[in-house]
Amino acid sequence: MVKVLVASKIHENGLKLLKDNGIEVTYVEEPPEEKLIELIKGHHGLIVRSKPFVTKRVIEAADVLMVIARAGVGVDNIDVEVAKAKGIEVLNTPEATTTSVAELAVGLMLAVARKIAFSDRKMRSGEWPKKQAEGYELNGKILGIIGAGRIGSTVARICKYGFNMQIVYYDRERNPRLEQELGAKYLPLEELLKVADVISIHVPLTPETRHMINEERLKLMKKTAILINTARGPVVDTNALVKALQEGWIAGAGLDVFEEEPLPPNHPLTKLENVVLTPHIGASTHEAQARAGIQVAEKVIEFFKQKGLLK
User: Fold this and answer.
1) Which residues share a beta bridge with 152?
2) 70, 106, 226 from 286: Cα distances, Å
3) Integer Cα distance of 57 and 79 in angstroms
4) Among all residues, which ones are annotated catalytic?
5) Residue range 201-212: mean pLDDT, rounded
């Protein structure tokens, strides 16, 4: 019998789908590395979300593991190179969370531009910050998309059709569909940073994208610009961003991801009024989690069917 270790919480419909297809499921939510090393033995498949980390030690401890599946987009918590070297397939479900992450990115834009979170904090403390809460409209502004894949393109569509924003984008490859549909304009990264009023990051974490947004590049941005990051924390140099927000190089930021998660108590970002913080909730909607759970189960089932281990 095919055995799959589910090491993160996935939607109950996903678990049911695995079992209904004759897979024996072991469910242990986010075990630490030593426990995962112990559990992985005897399992043909492993399903995770952003945690736990599937390290080299975990992969090397596996004896019959054939596939690691991530219920979500990024696979930076999986040592993909070690897995591939051992002949283990790595799968993910990038489609499942697209809408949820895109909607949060737009929500953060509004929260920063219209000082929604700032106003809420002040009112809860008994203040009436009407004069301090003057913000900016998104309508007609220039949106800079860094990474025009599924999520970046969805954000661009929402902002184009919802706020009549002008779209500029940067990516490793041009996106002709986005250019044709939205009139999006491709720009080199440095040029995008100079012209955009709102910049939204949607790139994976790789050695090339780590600290892509650093002090030098933050200084290129408009003083009225807003930076949004719902991708991965280390894409932005946190120390440089804190300095930019403190010294007014940019107007504000909306962050769902951080270099260190959870964000430590009393972190400098928590002291700033011009930043909106959310605890990595881009994919945290009922709809996204249901899709991710079902899609990851379907992909694992299809994998084992192709291997001839399931009917």
Assistant:
1) none
2) 17, 18, 28
3) 10
4) 232, 261, 280
5) 96
For residue 156, give the nearest of 114, 201, 115 by alpha carbon.
201
How many Cα atoms within 13 Å fall on the side-chain side of residue 14? 29
What is the separation of C-alpha 208 from the centre of its chain, rounded to a whole number of angstroms? 17
Q: Write down the pLDDT at residue 50.
A: 87
**Mean pLDDT, the chain, as a whole number?**
97
Buried residues in 176-204 as b, exposed as e (16+ CB within 10 A)? eebeeebebebbeeeebbebbbbbbbbbb
Tokens 């945290």 correspond to 284
SS3 112: helix
Residue 259 burial (CB count, 10 A): 16
Interatomic CA distance for residues 55 and 61, integer angstroms: 10
C-beta separation of 62 from 84 below 8 A: no
C-alpha 33/C-alpha 39 separation (Å) is 10
**Cα separation of 141 and 103, whole Å?**
18
Output the six-digit token pair for 3: 């055995």
State the Cα–Cα distance between residues 84 and 103, nearest whole angstrom. 34
* Tens digits of residue pLDDT in 217-258: 999 999 999 999 999 999 999 999 999 999 999 999 999 999
Do 259 and 238 meet the contact criterion of CB atoms below 8 Å apart? yes
For residue 59, how far is the Cα from the chain centroid? Answer: 24
What's the CA gap between 112 and 235, in Å, rounded? 20
- Residues composing the chain: 311
Strands 185-186 and 198-201: unpaired
Terminal Cα distance for the chain, rounded: 12
Residue in 217, 126, 215, 135 with CA at minimum distance from that of residue 170: 217
Q: Token digits for 140?
A: 């007609």
